[in-house]
Amino acid sequence: MSEHPILVTGATGKSGRRVVSQLRAKGLPVRAAARSGEHVFDWTDSGTWDAALEGVRSVYIVQLDGTKLVRPFIERAVRHGVQRIVLASGRGIDNPEYAKDSSGVLEGILDSEAATRESGLEWTISRPGWFAQNFSEGFFADAVRAGELRLPAGDGAASFVDAEDIAAVVVAALTEDRHAGRIYELSGPRAVTLAEAAATISEATGREIRYVPLSVEDYVAELVRQGLPPADAEAFADVIDPLREGKDAYVSDGVQRALGRPPRSFSDFAKSTAAAGGWPV
């Protein structure tokens, strides 16, 4: 399938752009698809799907949360002759006790996984936990920039996984024959508390980053004072709940199984991000 372009949806996101980069580093043709960028692709506009799928045999699917669009997209992909799909999912989604679903995304993710398994294609599902890059370019980046992680996480820990490792697993699944029918839960090598994460980032950047634990009520109130609607503020607090409860502290073996090597540590992530000038300032 190497002569056919590999379609990467969500190509400007944390995992997608790294998948694009790693595929191109291997000299493979890539169709980088997103709402803006090289190839226009919009989940909510099915008129963009056919051009994205034309001539493609392998696809990385980064779904749009809160929707059930993966199923009709896969049906369209089958008609275009796609043979292999890799779905970006989430760690813990098959555990109803893992997290509150106030934003209503779980049903769509479960349907996406079911559609993937039922597709009749070669399929692999990637289930990463908390991204380490949430500190450098995502959920926590503004707090890192401000020097204070003010979050309702208590002393909970998570086994943060480097997005470079996530991308490497996806690239392996897209380009190798031994990953069909596998679900890879992805994590880092050990659980890290937010206090430990702040100290590690401080050491890597030479800046003091503090973790300030808040109650859920105080956190929601702070977000509302910053202009967020109360429902959105509560949804953000719900996202932190598994971290506070230690539900993402366990270590998964997906990186080792897929790549034959251990995942990168949070310290390695912090140091390499600093070396690349990737920390928010």
Describe this structure in words.
The structure is a single chain. This protein has 281 residues and is α/β, with parallel strands linked by helices. The chain has a domain at 6-131 and 161-187 and 250-263: NAD(P)-binding Rossmann-like Domain (Rossmann fold). Helix content is 41%, strand content 16%. It has twelve helices and eleven strands. The protein has helices at 14-25, 49-53, 70-79, 106-117, 134-137, 141-146, 163-175, 194-205, 216-225, 230-244, 254-259, 266-275, and strands at 6-8, 30-34, 39-40, 58-62, 84-88, 122-128, 148-151, 157-158, 182-186, 192-193, 210-213. The strands form three sheets. A seven-stranded parallel beta sheet has the order 3-2-1-4-5-6-9, sandwiched between helices. Strands 7-11 form a two-stranded parallel sheet. The protein has a two-stranded antiparallel ribbon with strand order 8-10. The longest helix is centred in the C-terminal third of the chain and has 15 residues, at 230-244. It starts with 5 loop residues before the first strand and ends in a 6-residue tail after the last helix. The model has no long low-confidence stretch (mean pLDDT 95).
